[in-house]
Amino acid sequence: MAGRGYGASGSNGAAAGNEICQFKLVMVGESAVGKTSLVLRYVREQFQESYQSTIGAAFFRQTVFLDDSTVQLNVWDTAGEERYHSVTPLYYRGAQAAIVVYDITNEDTFHRAKTWVKELQREASPNILIALAGNKADIANKRDIDRQEAQAYADENSLLFMETSAKTAMNVHEIFMAIAEKLQATGQSGQMRIGVNLHEPSPRGRRSRCCAKRN
């Protein structure tokens, strides 16, 4: 069911002896809110005014170098179209973080974002870190959702919140970096494997460490 796949990593190698931590992150939200734009801006410094709609999900990879560890984010960009909604929860499996994206110029996408948050809280790991991204901040003059309203909602639900712009790169690296730092600081453990097997039953009694020493 996975569609396009992309890979990227940072330009500087990890220092010898640094810990390498891998985390799975899922991007969710309605179609056309800019999920793919955000990821491509982050991993490739690219932006286009429009992209072909994601089919199923697309995979990206980015490496973040922190002070004493290297964090690899394995990102699944899920489709926002209703016809794919039934399979989206399958990508939550093993995810340590999620970014729920809405369009600040479209009120309906914000209300739908709340539904995605509830679904993540219900279907995903109890410890999943959820970030809320109000995208398209470059056209804030057309906004339908006040920033304070979104911030209040995020505070009530213990969500990391930032307004972003894939077009101008506003807060794009910052939101991913904040997630990487929080995941590294909490030392969450999770699946080391990269990818999703949609036909595999949920593992029981099997946990792998989130970090391994670099040889």
TrEMBL record:
CDD domains cross-referenced by the UniProt entry: Rab5_related
Database matches in Pfam families: Ras
Molecular function via GO: GTP binding; GTPase activity
Region described as Disordered: spans on this chain: 195-215
Keyword Repeat on entry: no
Signal peptide, first to last residue: none
Keywords: GTP-binding, Nucleotide-binding
Keyword flag Ribosomal protein: no
Basic residues composition-biased segments: 204-215
Family: Belongs to the small GTPase superfamily. Rab family.
Entry-linked NCBIfam families: small_GTP
Identification of the protein by name: Ras-related protein Rab-5C-like
